[in-house]
Design brief:
The chain has 339 residues and is α/β, with parallel strands linked by helices. It contains 15 helices and nine strands. Strands 1-9-8-7-6-5-2-3-4 form a nine-stranded mixed sheet. β3, α2 and β4 form a beta-alpha-beta unit. α3 packs across α4, α8 crosses α12 and α9 crosses α10.
Length: 339
Amino acid sequence: MAKMYYEEDCNIKNLDGKKIAIIGYGSQGHAHAQNLRDSGCDVIVGLREGGKSWPVAEKDGFTVMTVAEATKAADIIMILINDELQAAMYEKDIAPYLTAGKALAFAHGFNIRYKCIVPPADVDVFMAAPKGPGHTVRSQYVNGKGVPCLIAVQQNATGKAYDIALAYIAGIGGARAGILETTMDEETETDLFGEQTVLCGGVVDLMRCGFEVLCEAGYKPENAYFECIHELKLIVDLINKGGVAAMNFSVSDTAEFGEYVSGPRVIPAEQTKENMRAVLKDIQDGSFAARWIQENKDGRPFFNAKRAELAKHPMEVVGKELREKMLWKNDADLDTASN
């Protein structure tokens, strides 16, 4: 069983006297900054000068500096901007000011795993990764709860990196829920795999195929949307709380029987697993990372074309129309923040 830590294992006083720079004030950035501040920590925010988040962070009461200034001033630098932007920003605004004994932190291991960022040996490097979106990290903290987190220490130059990382996670509320020990390599590879095969890639294609089959068979697209897309959240919420058994307990026996007889027809296990292994290999050998890095260098032609194509798909068009007619159309819990 993997090592787990909780509040009694963390001493937030290990952050006393340390200034924490949160680089980025988007989804995760605002949550980390506000939670740490509410936990009594000394927090500043580092942003690109002229960026749209600058006045937002100032309005929220933070001292805002350029990334270079924040790095100079801070003892702990947490990078919370998009993966594809981190390496260039690090080389320009962080590396020149990253002096011995400081700590460099991440919420995802991508840039360390694929050596886009190679920190000097005399700084601590750790990961504090909430397993949930930023708005949930914040709302759970405000409600006295927390989002489970992963911890990994890549470099322990000072001998205190684990203590600092545990204190940091306690500061954002993660110790209330539980902290799972891992490595940055493992987190990166499993995170990318989960996103691509199940959580994003797999689920979106499954919903799209189900929606299209029903529409092509002559059923109303609104019905197809409700059955293949809208209800997915209700099912996932049940699984999140009590596993597949809780979901099966709550749905009808007819639905559970259909799970057993039809699920394997839609997702044949051996062929699906073989396809997944190919995806995992691309992640492990760096092929996916190289493709994503090159895509950004080229101006994102494939990415932007696929995003535009998805926006025009009937399941998105119909879904938007239906959501506009539902009571939660202005739901403030929907996280649309960007760095």
